[in-house]
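Risk mitigation, structural track. In case the binding assays with pyridoxal-5'-phosphate fail to produce interpretable data, a predicted complex structure has been prepared as a fallback.
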Amino acid sequence: GGPHTINTMVDVATAPSLLPTLDNARTRELDKKHVLHSWSAQNAINPPPVTEASGVRMTVDGTSYIDFTSQLVNVNIGYQHPKLVAAIQEQAGRLMTVSPAMANDMRSEAARVIAEVAPDGMNMVFFTNGGAEANENAIRMARLHTGRHKVLAAYRSYHGATHGAITLTGEPRRFGSEPGIPGVVHFFGPYLYRSPFHATTEAEEGDRALQHLREVMVAEGTDKIAAIILETIVGTNGILMPPDGYLRGVRELCDEFGILLIADEVMAGFARTGEWFAINHWDVVPDLISFAKGVNSGYVPLGGVILSDAVAGSFMDTAYPGGLTYSGHPLACASAVASVSIMKEEGIVEHARDLGERVIGPKLRELAQAHRSVGEVRGIGVFWALELVTDPDARTPLTADQMNQVAAACKGAGMWPFIAGNRVHIVPPCVITEEEFAEGVRALEDGLAVADGFVA
Ligand code: PLP
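Fallback model:
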């Protein structure tokens, strides 16, 4: 048929493939020529092609590795989970696209299952395409609900790369987008190992961080502040575990001043920490939760905001002034429905918790004893960091060049590591078995031996 023939009866099974086969050299060549990558100078990078992956293993440039990264800490369910792939294929055959102005069965069901695993009193979901958009919408909701405009966010944070989300982000990646949106104020969160408060115990760090936060709130005008947004457990910036009592204290400050609490669970949510949401570990209920990544392991782009009933109430008689063409996309929502179902069926949340407590935590602490370069071990579930230092007393971080050598040693031994600053984050798919973890750790030890060589 010509260009005006629309064949609505395509037989998917026998349709000819339109996808060319590229070898790795061609992939690299076209990547260099046409693909603009994020955060790195084009000429400084040469991204290796990933051609296949299954479970916790991926093939990078022809070599198979145990993946200790889950890509960007999103493949919680592992690669090519057969049931998840099948659900996506099934939905593709049923209905590929529908606008958010219409209702859709998989969107309804995805919202239901997400609300079901969310804390009590959080029953409504606004869908986005990823984490940054989730945070954009979360702060807009908070501003509309409170009628205030300021938002507090932590210096050690990453909230995404759209204009508002990168302004919320406190780490240096925000500099390239400054000046950002008005009204964002940063504060220091707790981080005992490099304490901004010169504290010596976790309890002291937590108390001083809360005192500091109160002072920032008062100085900014408590009645000007719509929300505080924080990563329940700071992810990219170090897997920083909040001291016990910190999140409860933040909740109390918010309640005292009528400020909303937004929990950014984009990285920590959906099994990563051994809970559906990391904030459950501390029994604190936020007003808004942003999620993405683990909700469907990134098989299809999806994120969203879960609203408390009170905040959702603001948009019952007044429109929520925001929307996205692909909000609640049927393919993405079907993948979320299937993913949550698989996580329940296979006990992936419980597995992550058990593995963290019984295997990962003890093993990493053992490594810290055996390797002089390991300054600190932090984490929970399948969400851990090793901080590498050349001087354990001064806590001098390894340099970028030294970290590259650590990474090369891990890769040489068959494990793909997640490097962030002077840290190795241990963030494999949450479905990793004890045996697979042990295999990855043997490679990690090669990396740590290299790191030890840098200790003065
Ligand atoms: N929030 C957190 C805590 C994240 O870790 C990330 C991504 O790494 C984001 C937000 C941004 O999500 P996305 O890249 O899907 O926009």
